[in-house]
Structure formats: C-alpha cells, structure tokens
Amino acid sequence: MIYGLSLSACLFAFWLLLSGYFEAFLVAAGAGSSVAVALFAHRMKVLDREGHPIHLSLRALTYWPWLGIEIIKSAWNVSRIILDPKLPISPTLVRFKPSQRTIVGLVTHANSITLTPGTITVEANEGEFLVHGLTKTGAQGCIDSEMDRRVTRFEGRA
Amino acid sequence: MAGLVDIASWICLVAGGFFSIVGTIGLNRMPDFFTRMHAASVTDTLGAGLVLLGLMLQAGWTLVMVKLVFLGLLMFFASPAAAHALAKAALARGLKPRLHEEDPSSKRS
Predict the structure, then answer these.
(1) Do A82 and B39 touch (CB under 8 A)?
(2) Main location per UniProt (chain A) (predicted)?
(3) Distance CA B99, CA A135 (A)
(4) Which residue of B has its CA nearest to A109?
C-alpha cells in the first residue's frame, strides 16, 4: 500500500513537472493516470521493494555524490590515457565475488562499475562479476573495492 | 551575479565539449571493441554531464531545469545498462577482448 501511494505520488509529480500546465482537466488526468499506472504495476506484481526501492532514497543521497566524484576522477584518468601519445592501456578481465546480498544492491554495484569510465561489468551474476578494465590496475581495483563496501552499506539489511 | 552564473555555465559547456571530443578521439585510437567502449563512456558521463550542468545553469530555477535533471537521471540509469548489454552481447557472440597478457605488441597506436 505504501509503495502504491509513493509510486502514485512520484508519477504525479513527474507528470506535473513535465507538463507545466496546471489546468483542472490536465491535473486531474495526470492524477488519474498516475493511480492507474500504480494499479497496473500492482497487478503485474512489480510494485515491491525491488521495483520501487523507496527505502534506499535517503542513503542514495550520500552514495550518489561519492559515485559522482569517482566518475569524475576515473573519467579524468581515462582522458589522460586517451591523449597520451603512447596510449598506455593494458586491457584486463577480472572475476570477483561482490559482497551484496540483494538484487538491487548487485545491480547498483554493477551499474556503478560500468558508469565509472575505464571499467565495464561484462557479466553480473549473483556470486560473481566479470569486469573488463582498460588498465590492469583499474580492473584489479574493482576487487573488494571501496565501492563494494559502500554499495553494501547502501543496500542495508536485506 | 548573473554574469558569474554565465561564466560558470560556459566553463561547464566548454569542458563538456572538450571531454566529448576526447571520448571521440579515444573511440578512434583504441584497438578493439571493449577498449573503445571505455573511451565512449568518457563522452556519456563527463561530457554529457558537464553539458547538462552548463545548460541547467543557463535555465535557472525553471521547469526547463527540472527536465534537464530528468534527462541526467535517465542517462545515469540507462547508459550503464546499455553498455553492459552491449559488452555482454559481444562476449556471448564470441568476440574476444584483446588482453594485455596475451598481446605483448599492444603498443600499436
């Protein structure tokens, strides 16, 4: 129920912000469609902790800025590699075991790795990630990393 | 004050353009599919992010800024998923990445 209310409210806010029109008909249409979509989501059984993880929104406020800074740092490193005349790359594949226990946590970890330039998650399974890194040190930096610990803290208790 | 915001906005736009160009240069210089993806990710994280930030500063506190934020969020969630799907598909179809150990002549540029 709380997920249904929260999803309806989010969708309605999304509608209002995208439309920018505040006539009675359009606002009512927006409210109606938000509730309808939430009902459909409930009927499809995707309205749960995994599909609409509101319990993470507070912790996202501390995790995302940290991730942003990591993205800037690694984008800068990759830019320097690209502009280096010698092109000092050492592509490496690494396999390792992520420490998250929830699907949302694993997806967050895999997406964070892909989002930071220089590393791409090629395979993401429950007990094992396969990561391709532009440099050997970058790829090996993904194993038991700071990011791994932070995502585990971010997902909280399953 | 308005002048200051304008300057910050232009710095962001120019820096975003610079990183987009760097990503494109990398796309051309890298030797294989997987390393090219790394170069491209510079463009769609820092390049696109800085351009969006610059445009947000231009827009000020309006609905346009909100839409730019949505655009940023969309890229934040969709681009790693797309990159992952691409890399996984390439590996599944048997495209072997050139790895450092197997390939001591990787000094090619």
Answers:
(1) yes
(2) membrane
(3) 10
(4) B80
Please state the φ and ψ torsions of residue B49, each to the nearest 5 degrees: -60, -45
**Entry pTM:** 0.87
Query: pLDDT at residue A134 above 60?
Result: yes
Which ipTM value was assigned to this complex? 0.84
A63 shares a domain with A37: no
Structure tokens at B73: 């969020």
Among partner residues A17, A92, A124, which is closest to B100 by beta-carbon distance? A92
Q: Considering CB atoms only, which of A93, A116, A117 is closest to B99?
A: A93
Q: Are residues A39 and A80 in the same domain?
A: no
The arithmetic mean of pLDDT across residues B57-78, rounded, is 92
**Structure tokens, A124:** 């993401």
Are A20 and A67 part of one and the same domain?
no
> What average pLDDT score do residues B68-97 get?
92
Residue B102's pLDDT is what? Answer: 53
pLDDT in tens, B12-31: 999 999 999 999 999 999 99
Cβ neighbours of A123 in B, within 8 Å? 88, 91
- Contact call for residues B38 and A118 (beta carbons, < 8 A): yes
Looking at the partner chain, which of B30, B63, B81 has a beta carbon nearest the beta carbon of A17? Answer: B63
Chain A residue with Cα closest to B86: A122
Q: Identify the domain containing residue A39 by its residue range.
A: 2-43
